[in-house]
Write a structure and sequence with these properties.
alpha/beta; Rossmann fold; 7-stranded parallel β-sheet; 9 helices; globular; binds coenzyme A; oxidoreductase; SDR_fam; NAD(P)-bd_dom_sf; 2,4-dienoyl-CoA reductase (NADPH) activity
Length: about 280
């Protein structure tokens, strides 16, 4: 990943926690932060994957920045608190939090148990609440800070087979506003990135049926799927002084697809149902 839009070291002196940073979009954000001089702690559930990603990105960015892996489940407040302390011990006081940890699968409402719905709400919504509250308590209320929530446009288009993830992301967008208002006076900015379909991610291969991909691409105003770099670029912007007056914003990075998505059309329901989501 290379991005020359932003000055090489503009995040030097900053330290970020990225939950869900072990793979996919989260990993791309970690990569971009390291490239721009920001130390990063990756927080996630799978220790092997976290360790491998941290080692790979440390090797790639030989520029004095630190990338460390800290295992925790964002649903467990106490363990997450310990993980955050551990992260700060290794990379310094945290100035940026990216809430990227999420869980998802395709399921119709009728095929979703109460526990399945709750599981996704717990990972996405409660996890975002837990991490934000801990970052506020430990560092941001005294020193200011920057919270970036990775949301999605599922609820904006009422996408079929996604009531659990859509509800979770809608709640995250609501939280973005509440936290921006309550914490604005403490020099804390809170924003949501509503992510559209991004190519070369686990979500893309697991959640989009191959037979519908070309159809979907043609429904996107920019006629292409997003790239991980598109989301990383928005995180860089939101972490930079260029966005110093931006808070409480729900920012779509979706190629315009929220306006044109066909996934909420009833006929997609049957087409998508036949796609067995791989776990
Ligand atoms: N359809 C319907 N229900 C599903 C499901 C699916 N495809 N996948 C999981 N569930 C249900 C389970 O049956 C369970 O409900 P039950 O107790 O009533 O049977 C509930 O969700 C919890 O699942 P479980 O696997 O025990 O929870 P977990 O906390 O270990 O993991 C996920 C939850 C979402 C992370 C897991 O399903 C998963 O690994 N998903 C794929 C990876 C992923 O989400 N990647 C990131 C986003 S692309």
């Amino acid at each position: 990943m290379s991005n020359k839009t932003f000055a090489d070291n503009f995040l030097r002196g900053h330290s970020a926690i990225v939950t869900g940073g072990g793979s996919g979009i989260g990993k791309g954000i970690v990569d971009a932060y390291l490239e721009h001089g920001c130390n990063v702690a990756i927080v996630g559930r799978k220790k092997d994957r976290l360790d491998a990603t941290a080692a790979e990105l440390m090797r790639k960015h030989n520029n004095g920045t630190l990338c460390v892996a800290v295992q925790a489940d964002v649903r467990d407040y106490k363990l997450l608190s310990e993980a955050f302390d551990n992260a700060a011990k290794q990379i310094g006081r945290i100035t940026i939090l990216v809430n990227g940890a999420a869980g998802n699968f395709l399921a119709p409402i009728t095929g979703l148990s109460s526990n399945a719905f709750k599981t996704v709400m717990d990972i996405d919504t409660v996890g975002t609440f837990n991490a934000s509250k801990l970052a506020h308590e430990k560092w941001f209320k005294e020193n200011g800070g920057n919270i970036i929530n990775l949301s999605a446009n599922l609820h904006m288009t009422a996408q079929v087979l996604q009531v659990h993830a859509g509800a979770a992301k809608a709640a995250i967008d609501a939280m973005t506003g509440h936290m921006a208002v309550e914490w604005g006076g403490e020099n804390i900015r809170v924003n949501s990135i509503c992510i559209g379909p991004i190519d070369e991610t686990e979500g893309f291969s697991r959640l989009l049926p191959p037979n519908l991909i070309e159809d979907m691409r043609q429904n996107i105003p920019l006629l292409r799927f997003g790239k991980i770099q598109d989301i990383a670029n928005m995180c860089l912007y939101l972490s930079s002084p260029a966005s110093s007056y931006v808070t409480g914003a729900i920012i779509k990075v979706d190629g315009g697809s929220t306006f044109t998505s066909g996934c909420s059309m009833p006929q997609y329901m049957n087409k998508m149902k036949s796609f067995k989501s791989k776990l």
